[in-house]
Amino acid sequence: MTGGWQGGPVTPRATCVLAGNPGPMTLDGTNTWVLSEPGSNGCAVVDPGPLDEAHLRRVLDVVAARGTRVELVLLTHHHLDHAESAAHFAELTGAPVRALGDGLADGDRLQVGGLELTVVATPGHTADSLSFLLPEDNALLTGDTVLGRGTTVVSHPEGRLAAYLDSLERIAAMTNSGQVETILPGHGPTVQHAAQAVWYYLEHRRERLGQVRAALADGAGDADAVVARVYADVPEELRPAARLSVLAQLDYLRAKGLSGRGA
């Protein structure tokens, strides 16, 4: 389940505080990111995480140790392991909370105590998924769009695979240009070779889609039959997530006319 990731400072401007909620879907736990410009007295906190008072105290301890105060709380998306504590954390700090459609839009440039951030819409895992570019560190905070280990789940009906693939292509363009060299994910360790990781994500999705198409051609009549063939090696506790992923893939293939069946 875990791979030794404990968080801590990872760039001159970004420190991860790891929440105590490890699990099959959260890996080592949720990464809460404290971001501040060196020497500044203001910071932003991205994804305060689950409603866990001990975790929030640790976040505030890191904020204090950096000699800063929280001026802005940002959310990569609405899932509870990232956002459940947002309202309470706002009460503790007096800082506003911003998410897609709630004060944030694609391309917005944010200034927090001299720190610069750019909002990058990366829908697919959820409709409201955002990433945040930290240009001075050539780093991108990706939430659940790209993880530090393994691959993320695009779950039907909330997840949309076409949008997710478009988001990966957008991040790939940022890595290929050198704009992004490091990924600061929502779960798991920092990804130092961003371009390689995003290439793997795209290849993995193409491979899975090919496997699903082959299973359909071989007579798999529904999502459960596809899961049994394509995800046979997945642990039992992850089978429900695999089924939702297959449903999202089937929707994508039908929309593209690639399922071999009528809509």
Poorly predicted segments: none
Count, helices: 7
What is the share of helical residues? 25-40%
| Sequence of strands across the biggest β-sheet | 1-2-3-4-5-6-7
Order of H and E elements: EEEEHEHHEEEEEEHEHHH
Rg (CA only): 19 Å
Structural description of this entry:
The protein is of the alpha/beta class and 263 residues long. 35% of the residues lie in helices and 21% in strands. It contains 7 helices and 12 strands. A 7-stranded mixed β-sheet has the order 1-2-3-4-5-6-7. A 5-stranded mixed β-sheet has the order 8-9-10-11-12, with no helix packed on it. β10 and β11 form a beta hairpin. α4 packs antiparallel against α5. The termini are far apart. The model has no long low-confidence stretch (mean pLDDT 95).
SSE map:
Blueprint: E1 7-9, E2 14-18, E3 31-35, E4 42-46, H1 53-65, E5 69-74, H2 80-83, H3 86-93, E6 97-100, E7 103-104, E8 109-112, E9 115-121, E10 130-134, E11 139-143, H4 161-176, E12 182-185, H5 194-217, H6 223-230, H7 239-256
Parallel strand pairs: 4-5, 5-6, 6-7, 11-12
Antiparallel strand pairs: 1-2, 2-3, 3-4, 8-9, 9-10, 10-11
Keywords:
alpha/beta; 7 helices; 263 residues; 7-stranded mixed beta sheet; 12 strands; 5-stranded mixed beta sheet
Summary, kept brief:
With 263 residues, this protein is α/β, with parallel strands linked by helices. It contains 7 helices and 12 strands.
